[in-house]
Structure formats: C-alpha cells, structure tokens
Write a structure and sequence with these properties.
The protein has six helices and two strands, in the order αααββααα. With 138 residues, it is mostly helical. The relative contact order is 0.17.
C-alpha cells in the first residue's frame, strides 16, 4: 500500500511484478494480499497493457486501521496477550490489563495514521521501505 500510495500523484497503475521485485515479496503471496485489498475497496485493479493497481481515493483518506481490518481483521485488538481463549476483564490472564492498555494505544495509532502519513515519512528518509520505481534513481 505504501508503494502504491507513492504512485498516486503520478496517476499511474502499479504492476504486480514491479511491487514484488521492488519490495522483495513473493509474487503469489503479494497477489493474494492485493486481491484482499481490492475486495475491501482499498485498491482498484485494472487489466491490460497499462493495468495494475492503484488507490481508489487520495492516500490521506485511507486509514491504516482499514488496511489492518482488510488483511487481519480487528479481532487482533481484542485477543489475549498470551493467547488464552477465555481471557476477559472478569477473568484476566496475568498480563491482561497491561496488554490491554498497549493494544488500545496501538489501535489508536492505526486509527489516527493515514497512508499519506506513512508515504511522507518514508519519502523523507524514515523507515526501511524502498518506494522508488525501478527506473528512478534511488
């Protein structure tokens, strides 16, 4: 999504092979993830010689929580920190309350950050993600 988000201003589609090569992600695995994002309307997919993937809206309108929800679901923010099935506020595991606070803070980060926040950070040199297209200088 970051890689595709950077291409938004260029009004171009990004090919599956390009993303796979640039991000060193197995093509088959990436294809499944991208199709999930298309199904959840976070990406558009076009076929043909100029086909590929693109964002359906500006990156500032896509919150990270939407991406997490599409790929993993939001139940990750309710699960027990040590994997117990019956961990609740009424019957907590040994780390329940501490982990609950951490989960809530992480969720707030994902709810507040947009795709444009991440693309700007990475474009300014933050992070380890290569967002350059193959034909552009790095």
């Amino acid at each position: 999504m970051l890689y595709i988000g950077l291409q938004y201003q260029k009004d171009t589609n990004v090919e599956l092979n390009e993303i796979a090569v640039q991000q060193e992600i197995p093509k088959h695995f990436l294809s499944k993830i991208l199709q999930l994002l298309v199904k959840h309307k976070l990406l558009c997919s076009m076929k043909g010689p100029t086909g590929g993937f693109r964002l359906p809206c500006p990156p500032e309108e896509i919150r990270l929580i939407e991406i997490v929800d599409a790929i993993d679901g939001l139940d990750i923010f309710d699960q027990c920190g040590i994997g117990l099935k019956r961990c609740t506020d009424e019957d907590p595991c040994p780390i329940h309350y501490e982990y609950k606070r951490i989960r809530e803070r992480v969720r707030k980060v994902f709810e507040s950050k947009t795709l444009v926040d991440l693309t700007e950070e990475v474009s300014n040199g933050g992070g380890i993600i290569n967002l350059e297209k193959p034909d552009e200088p790095t």
